[in-house]
Amino acid sequence: MTTSKQIRPFHTVLVANRGEIAIRVLRTVRRMGYGTVAVYSEADHASPHVRAADRAVLIGGSAPRESYLNIPAIIEAARRAGADAVHPGYGFLAENEDFADAVDAAGLVFIGPSGEAIRSMGNKAQAKRLVIAADMPCIPGYQGRDQGDAAFISASSDIGFPVMVKAASGGGGRGMRLVEAASALPAALASARSEALQAFGSDELILERAVIAPRHVEIQVLADSHGHCIHLGERDCSVQRRHQKVIEEAPSPAVDADLRARMGDAAVKAAQAIGYIGAGTMEFLLDRDGRFYFMEMNTRLQVEHAVTEAVTGLDLVEWQLRIAAGDRLTLQQADVQMRGHAIEVRLTAEDVPAGFLPQTGPVLRWRAPSETVFDVRVDHGLAEGGAVSPHYDSMVAKLVAHGATRDEARRKLLRAVDHCVLLGLESNQGFLADCLADPVFAEGGAVHTGFVQERFSERLKERATPGARTLAFAAFGAVAQALDAQADGRVVPAALGAGTGGLTLAAGAMRWRAQVTAREAGWQVLLQRLDAEEAPALLVLHQPQWTDASRSAFRAECDGMQESCVIALDDASVQLWHAGRTWHLDRVSERKQAETASGGGAVTAPLTGRVVDVAVREGETVQAGQRLVVLEAMKMEHTLTAPIAGRVTEVCVAAGGQTSKGALLLRIEAQP
Fold this sequence. Notes:
By secondary structure, this protein is of the alpha+beta class. The chain contains 18 helices and 39 strands.
């Protein structure tokens, strides 16, 4: 296949993306001496990526289709800012062939492959047809043009169950369903079509035979415009939740030198067969017997590219820029050496026990672990006082550690994750730490794409119980923020005199009454469990001291142990980082306690988003667990079910509308 695109030197690069993605790309663009231009939506006017560039251009409203997916607006922004090259980042328009063609037609350099190459690989069905012709091993499946249910049902009987339903366009686990039996296939097809159409603008699907307990291994390729192509080894992306990557590493614990060479050779041949130019990734499933099968090609930089950079010492964005400018790839395959081991985790704004439900809201506290202290790389686009928007993806940062061995990299990363502080909304920080500490992950050899479900299963739904010291620190911090402190930050008992302060804290269904009392010996915190029969606990905090001017962090001794905390307060909660975990504790009013005790059937929105479907009407009788409302946010659909059996007495939303986190959706009255 031949390709045609603008390949020439340039002087100023516009990065058509946002957040940590834009910041990471801009870092290399600036280091190489190019001018930098950022773009931003109305929601992102104060985003750190806007300040990371020489100039930034407003391109539209908060919704992606009005801004980051608005091709004419981005082309016009490049013209206004004097940019002569465009880097798409990863996500949004990075794999959009129309965008690549539009950049090229405008006389600008697209820092990525040609629109023709993106088009050939952007659709999974077409990609599989192409690579099969190039003798690439593929999973048996169906990628036909007949998209009717009957065609899929017929194909599934030939393939055999279980099967995977996948969106033909896009990725990231969206539009993907595992189907165990024929009876479940029609519903899976309908659900996958709906999610794929919302995420990618296409409801085309494919089927694949489900490979049991595979590893997800991908090969990074680099190809220049002079016909030279190499691979940079593999990444293992097997730790996933909801078919989306959570932890990635290089090299893979399951790949030896021979397998690496065979997979790399297949990836290079496939890239050359389509005339590929730039950085790209061939994704494979690796079965238990060491057989690999092509899944798809990502015609862009990957989120996980940082682990490849760590073990090869190469800057992939730098090579993207060089190739786009027409430089030859000076590296030969033998020059590529993998040194040590690197592991990356994705920090996401999600409520893990609620099914990894994406979260939006204000960033009250953000303290990234020190890159020098912990010897890690942290890519992020967060700032205290900012917010995580419902319009964009839930990933907010990635942390990468490199070590001489896999276990050294794992230990470094675990310590860094323990010291990662994000308060204001729920995150997967604790879940990441649990994965890294898990003995099966630590050993490495038995990890597969079902690792999370296999190792954590029902534990994922459980909310951790805060210990007595955590509760004592939270209660003290909530009371102490209203008190005077000495010049050195110390909060002495005299500040409260003989008075006391108290509050009721909750974590899920658990309730504690905390009474804080000033004594000469220190601060006493009396904890009484309200929802269970437990003996009261009395703890004493000695010499508490604020360690920053904003009173967001303090240190104190409790039970003979000195510890540090970071705290954030609002009207409804006390949020705390303590002992390597973040805690979201509700402040419970008397009214809220009464509502909880009555077992009310109010169904509220767990996140801000669009109402896709309302499945019940006022007056209808429902059963506990019955489907009620489907919401869409951060490119994913979320189904809400009835908490109790009863009659629907109030419906407050309609399909197509918007709702905000905490808003009442409908109310159910329990039936006698």
